[in-house]
Amino acid sequence: MPSDSSRLRIKRSGDATQVEFIDRNILDEANIQLIGDEIASIIDDRPKPKLLVSFANVDHLSSAALGMLISVNNKVRAAGGQLRLADIDPQIFEVFVITKLNKLFEIHETSADAMKSFK
Fold first, then answer.
1. For domain 8-116, which CATH number applies: 3.40.50.2000, 3.30.750.24, 3.40.1010.20, 2.40.50.1070?
2. Residue 64 and residue 68: Cα distance in Å, rounded?
3. For the residues of 95-119, what is the DSSP string, one character each?
4. Cα–Cα distances in angstroms (integers) from residue 106 to residues 4, 12, 28, 60, in the given order
5. Are the beta carbons of 69 and 63 closer than 8 angstroms?
6. Furthest-apart CA atoms within the chain: distance in Å
7. What are the sequence ranges of the domains in the chain?
8. How many whole angstroms separate alpha carbon 98 and alpha carbon 66?
């Protein structure tokens, strides 16, 4: 569960979990490690996890943060779950396109759309 030092806002909705970043800039490697660990424990918490990561408050994302998202994606898939990304700023989305990560992740315009997409 989130501690006082959590960098995430976590909301459960039915059998899905929505994670939202508190920080506008996801750049610091130590914080990225903490975020990755926290999301990993959410994934481990449930069989076939349904996880939505919302970027509603995020302005900047480092390459380390992208790497953490790839690890999260692999962990969710290994657990037989589903991962959705949503609310991505157009400039950040451009990075997903350039790196072809938009093909790896299922990305939705809004969190509501992403939540509806879970099977």
1. 3.30.750.24
2. 6
3. HHHHTTHHHHSEEESSHHHHHHT--
4. 30, 19, 25, 20
5. no
6. 35
7. 8-116
8. 12
Q: List the chain pLDDT tens, one digit each, 119 residues.
A: 445 578 999 999 999 999 999 999 999 999 999 999 999 999 999 999 999 999 999 999 999 999 999 999 999 999 999 999 999 999 999 999 999 999 999 999 999 999 999 98
Predicted structure pTM score: 0.93
Structure-token pair, residue 86: 């949503």
Q: Which residues contact 49 (CB under 8 A, 6 or more apart)?
A: 17, 42, 43, 76, 79, 81, 82
Those residues whose C-beta lies under 8 Å from the C-beta of residue 115, and which sit 6 or more positions away, are: 13, 16, 18, 52, 84
8-state DSSP, 18: E
